[in-house]
Amino acid sequence: MNNDRGQGMTSDVRAASAESEAFAQVSSMTLQRARAPTGTTFAGLDAGSYPGQRAMDAYRAMGFAVTSLYFNHAPARAIPNKVDNKWIAAANYLRKSGWGLAPIYVGAELAGSSHVPPPENPLSNAQTDAAEALDLGQRAGFQAGSTIFLDVEKAFPKNGPYESYALKWIEAVQAGGYYVRCFGCYPKQCSRIHLFASDLNKGTFDRILGGQLARSGVSMVSPENYQGFIVVKPLPQTVVGRSCLRPPLRAQANGVYPTLIAQRANLYGMDCSLNSLPFQEQDHEVAACATSALWSVLHGTARLFDHSILSPLEITRTALSKRPLFGRALPNDGLDIYQMAGVVRHVGLEADVVDATERYLLQACA
Prior knowledge:
The strands form 3 sheets. The chain has a 6-stranded mixed beta sheet with strand order 1-2-3-4-5-6. Strands 7-8-9 form a 3-stranded antiparallel beta sheet, with no helix packed on it. The chain folds into 3 domains: 11-184, TIM Barrel (Alpha-Beta Barrel); 191-276, no CATH class; 289-365, no CATH class. The protein is of the alpha/beta class. α4 packs parallel to α5 and α9 crosses α10 (312-322). It is globular and about 70 Å long. The chain starts with 10 loop residues before the first helix and ends with a helix. Helices cover 35% and strands 20% of the residues. The protein has helices spanning 11-16, 53-62, 85-96, 122-139, 161-175, 202-209, 214-220, 249-254, 289-305, 312-322, 337-346, 359-365; strands at residues 29-35, 41-47, 64-70, 100-106, 147-152, 179-184, 191-196, 226-232, 240-245, 261-267, 270-276. The protein is built from 12 helices and 11 strands.
């Protein structure tokens, strides 16, 4: 199907949309993939203006199953009369017609990202906008416990005024009994920072890549010089992803590191190897403290006992399946000792609980 302002529609569909001029002139209409909790994929519709009842019936007959439902197109405090009463009024009809609804509130935006101005007073504006989002959500029939999406046009920098606005908006909406998600485009590529013991400037690195300093290139990734890498995730918080650091040579000479395993990374064709144990920062959604700890441990034991290495999401889901709790599985606040033991047994190992307060006893058990 062509998604350019309704072009490529059949004449029947065009006729069916006569009650709504917006159908043939939808400002933003795209096919999207909406993923349900079970992993099932549905065809989704995102229309800036409500296309009308007949048009929505036609889309439903085509196989569309999920649609955005805009509460507004700008906060009332910033641009009055931007409440989308057509979408709100149609909410109950769409539910009865079998549509899955993604309610979206358009709050303040980053400067220059849309027609909506940035917040003048982030915390105060966030409280006002959150109250409006809760009111519009109730008008559209979304009860407490539903999820409301905040429209974010561009990823925002960390520790800036817009982050303060977004976090305060989320806090206020959650306090009203709703769950929150962000509806926007975010970078999907991570960055990797390589660490070296010796100084390395761009000019020298360019000559190494050009083959002019081949010997320097070899020494650059030697065990004495290459210290590991840190993966940086494109998130506003908990940015440290899979990272491997080499223990200091002096510490290696004076200590025992039974969990170190060979790790490889490629830097412009140069093979970087080091002995380390992968680490990543814990978060408050998928990989809380225990999940992140198990993720690191399983990387070490997998080489010894040849079992699979579970992702943080797989660890959390496995733990909850072994000992389910009430409420939502995600976001996850952490695992108890029985859930952790269940994950260990899931990969074919046995869990042994050591209750000790002296670090020397813990070191002996390790």
